[in-house]
Specification:
Low-confidence stretches: 1-7
Radius of gyration: 18 Å
Order of helices and strands: EHEEEEHHHHEEEEEHE
Structural class: alpha+beta
Helix content: 25-40%
Number of strands: 11
Mean pLDDT: 87
Strand content: 25-35%
Number of helices: 6
Distance between the termini: 37 Å
Shape: globular
């Protein structure tokens, strides 16, 4: 694993958090981006929102000045294009998407390298979660929805890094990926609100690399199925996981939501992923 992929997260004492405004907030219904404070003279700060047919994203870039506004704009367009392309090309609800064609047996996973990567990730998470994340145990066949959103964000983030932007945050719903530093020059300050009890004080993280994935706050009943019974999962109200990669964190959160407290065993023995919330019904 490369250095810039290692998680660097510090849990902040609530008393220390109060006078310091967070850069990002993750809540039960939507994320919120606070306006940046002072921006360094050698940096270009950009915020951009984009909506696809299935999700809404916010991208925050703290780009080096040498890249120029044209270069930053091109990098942003490239990342947004990746998010839109994944929505169009891999969405399980789209009849002509690669996932739908795979389900119908018209193509194999090896037909397209990104599709093979997506399938391999689903298989790896099925093994890591004792089958509680199982993209094949759903009506109609293969459905990578439990990690597809995180996979899309990570691929968009890779486009930013390839363009020379190493300080950014990408948010979607109650999920996010961050790298580097915010516009004020320090770590990204992320206030993670409890997924079901908005009266609780948020858990505050300072992050320079990592991801937060959440399952169970979409408002849809029965959106996660117990892969062993085929019935809607009902043990937890929400599950939130933090770690290096959003696709993995999302899959873990989905599996934990389905498995309930038994899934906490996955995060022991030196795991790079940690449970922030696993709230019982």
């Amino acid at each position: 694993m490369r250095i810039d992929q290692q998680p660097r997260t510090r849990w902040v004492d609530q008393s220390a958090f109060q006078p310091r405004r967070p850069d990002l907030r993750l809540g039960a219904r939507s994320h919120r981006v606070d306006r940046p404070g002072t921006v360094g003279e050698d940096r270009i700060a950009v915020q951009h929102a984009v909506r696809t047919s299935t999700a809404e994203y916010s991208l925050l870039l703290n780009a080096p000045e040498w890249l120029g506004r044209r270069g930053v704009g091109e990098a942003l367009r490239d990342a947004v294009a990746e998010l839109r392309a994944i929505d169009l090309t891999y969405g399980p609800t789209r009849p002509e998407s690669l996932v739908s064609r795979l389900r119908r047996g018209e193509i194999s996973p090896d037909s397209y390298p990104p599709l093979a990567d997506l399938v391999d990730r689903c298989a790896a998470m099925r093994a890591a979660t004792d089958g509680w994340f199982d993209a094949w145990a759903v009506p109609g066949g293969f459905d990578p929805g439990g990690l597809l959103g995180g996979w899309a964000v990570e691929r968009a983030a890779a486009r930013l890094r390839a363009a020379g932007i190493h300080d950014y945050a990408v948010l979607s719903g109650a999920d996010l990926v961050v790298r580097g530093h915010a516009a004020h020059g320090g770590p990204w300050r992320v206030a993670v609100h409890h997924p079901t009890d908005q009266h609780r004080a948020p858990l505050v993280l300072e992050m320079t690399a990592g991801a937060v994935g959440t399952s169970g706050v979409s408002g849809r009943q029965g959106h996660v199925v117990d892969p062993h019974t085929g019935e809607p999962a009902d043990q937890l109200a929400a599950a939130t996981v933090v770690g290096p990669d959003l696709a993995v964190a999302d899959a873990y959160a989905t599996a934990l939501y389905a498995a309930g407290p038994a899934g906490l065993d996955w995060f022991r023995d030196g795991s790079d992923y940690r449970v922030l919330f696993a709230h019982r019904r």
